[in-house]
Amino acid sequence: MNKLPSLSMIYDHIRPEERMLIDLAKRKGIKLKLHKTDDFFLDATLTSTKEDFQDVVLQRSISYFCSIHLTALLENRGIEVINSSKIALLCGNKLMTTLILSRENVPVPKTFIAFNVKSALDALLEIGYPAIIKPVIGSWGRLVAPLKDPESARAILEDRENMFPLYQIYYIQEMVKRPPRDIRSFVIGDKVVAAIYRYSSKDDWRTNTARGGQVENCKVTSEIENVSLRATQPFGDGIFGVDMMESSNDILVSEINYTTEFRNSVPATGVNIPDLILDYALRRLKN
Ligand SMILES: Nc1ncnc2c1ncn2[C@@H]1O[C@H](COP(=O)(O)OP(=O)(O)O)[C@@H](O)[C@H]1O
Ligand SMILES: [Mg+2]
Hints:
The protein has 287 residues and is of the alpha+beta class.
């Protein structure tokens, strides 16, 4: 009798995405072993044990810090993790992503980095108001703030002086003149499987669905396909959510998500993203 194909999935909360993956794995006859990050500890000095993990692990932990540390440890034991620690490290940090995309000539918004309030204000004079400040590590639009004029910029920057040092890496970006929407494409391996428009709600300028952004299907044009693949290939084989903005000339890539949410995108696009994720993980199992 053939053994059921087996995968592991690491999670810290079961969101609708993890629920879909669990239910679908059951329907597809895949044994999906679940590992909740709160529930175990691991020997960091072991290099060749799989312990109770399967050969391929879907890493769905929400926490950036938990994700990179745990993934690196598992990789050190020869376990294949989707996404890799390299992808998580680089895509989880907006500056690292900007550096790589710029090097690859992928269009990105103009972005400056400064390390104190005075030089951040100088950078803002050059980039022009309104601009945007973002934490280099973060998601769901948290602490992504518009800087409308020097007075409010100074106030926001001074607030951040009292936060954890990470928030004093001032990542300052031009405010792209985009329509009230952006584009998120889903890249699985070497394919762009779907894309959505995200429209900002009336209560927030950010388009994040976590902030009430509304989702609509977006046709994967050859331009979107091209930009999405060029933006993700430098990071390696994996699963990505590419955030893009339509400027007057170009499609600009603003960030790449490495544990992307898809609960609203499946009904909007009609594409069974969790099914494609499981198929992709099984392909990685065979390679
Ligand atoms: N440079 C920009 N110009 C205009 N809008 C932006 C810009 N950067 C971000 N936004 C808006 O803010 C949202 C959150 O920014 P993003 O960089 O994706 O951070 P997060 O990781 O928190 O989602 C984006 O989805 C977009 O709607
Ligand atoms: Mg985003």
